[in-house]
Amino acid sequence: GVYQDSLRATWPIKRTKNDIGRYYKAGWTPLAELKKTVMAPLGRVSKVLEYDITRRKSGILIDGNLGKEEWAGLDRSKSMVVEQYYTGDKKEGPKSYAWLQYDEKYLYVGVYNEPDPFTEAMPPQHKDFKNPFVEVDIESLMGSHSRGWWIDDMATGPIYIMTGDSEGRITVTNKFGMPHQQVKKLEGMIEYKATVLNRENIEWTCEMKIPLAEIGINPANADRLSFNIGTYKRSGFFAWVATGSSFWRLENPGFIRFAR
User: Fold this and answer.
1) How many whole angstroms separate alpha carbon 231 and alpha carbon 79?
2) Residue 10, pLDDT score
3) Listed range (16-25, 50-59, 93-102) with the worst mean pLDDT
4) Which residue has the higher pLDDT, 171 or 9?
C-alpha cells in the first residue's frame, strides 16, 4: 500500500478515490490535446484542386465493376486523377481515376487503378505486394454525429476516413476518438465492392456507396468541403492532392462541391 516518504509530494494523500488514475495537467482535455498533436497544422505542398460532384442520373450497382453507363462513360477528363506522390515530391507512378456522384442520401465513388507491375528498381519484397487500398477522406459539418469527438475550432470540420482494399474489405479508420459503436455502425452501412482485373500487375477497380446523413452531410446545404482520395500501390502512396503527410490531413487538400 501507500506510505509516507520524503519523495512523496504530499502526505497524507489528498486525492479522493475517484481521482486516482486520472491524468493531471491544468486545462488538459482529450480534444484539446488532439488539436495540438494529431491535427497540428500543416503547410500546403501542392496546388489547390477542386471537383464538382454531379448528381446521379442512372442506377449504380455496387459490385466492384465500373460500368460506362454508371460512371459518366468512364471519361477520364471527368474524373479525379490520383497521381501526386503524397509528400509533394516528384515521383512517377501508375495513376488512379475516381468518379464521384451523389443523390439525396448517398455519395458514390468509383475508382480504376492502373496496372502497377513489379520492376527491378523496386525493393525485392514488393514483388509479392498484396495489400493495395483506396482511401476516401471527407470533411463533414459539425452536428450531433460529431459531438464528443470533434471541437468546433479545429482547422477543418469533422473528418471521416474510409478505406477499401482490393479484397473487398471496408474500414472506417478512427483517428479522433469516435465512439466504437459509431465506427462499426458506419462500416456496416457503407456498401463496398472491389474487382481485381490483373492480380500480378495489381490492376483493380472498386465502388463505394457512403450514407451522407450518417456522416453529417446534407448536399442541399453543404458548400465547399475539404476532400482527398489516396491510394497505396506497389509503387508507393499517391493522392489526388498531396498533403505532405497522411492523405486524411484535410487542412491543405482539394475541395468538392455538390453540383446542383
Assistant:
1) 15
2) 74
3) 16-25
4) 171
Q: How far apart are CA 53 and CA 78, in angstroms?
A: 10
Based on DSSP, count helices (H) and strands (E) in the chain, helices before strands.
2, 13
Assess contact for 98 and 80: CB atoms under 8 A: yes
The stretches of the chain forming alpha helices (DSSP H) are 30-36, 180-189
Q: Which three cell numbers stand for residue 180?
A: 466504437
**Phi/psi at 16 (5° precision):** -85, 170
For the chain, the distance separating the N- and C-terminal CA atoms, rounded to the nearest angstrom, is 68
The x, y and z cell numbers of residue 35, run together, are 488539436
Q: Return phi, psi of residue 242, to 5°.
A: -65, 135
> Cell numbers at residue 160, please?
471521416
Q: Give how far Cα 20 sits from Cα of 13, 14, 27, 29, Å.
A: 10, 10, 18, 17
Segment 109-125, tens digit of pLDDT: 999 999 999 998 899 98
Question: Is the Cβ–Cβ distance between 55 and 259 less than 8 Å?
Answer: yes
- With contact defined as beta carbons under 8 Å apart, do 170 and 192 qualify? yes
How far apart, in whole angstroms, are the C-alpha atoms of residue 229 and residue 238?
Answer: 9
Give the list of residues 6+ apart from residue 63 with CB closer than 8 angstroms, or none: 193, 195, 207
Tell me the H-state helices in 140-179: none
**44 has pLDDT over 80:** yes
Cell of 151: 471541437
- H helices of 91-223, in order, are 180-189
Q: CB of 229 within 8 A of CB of 137?
A: yes
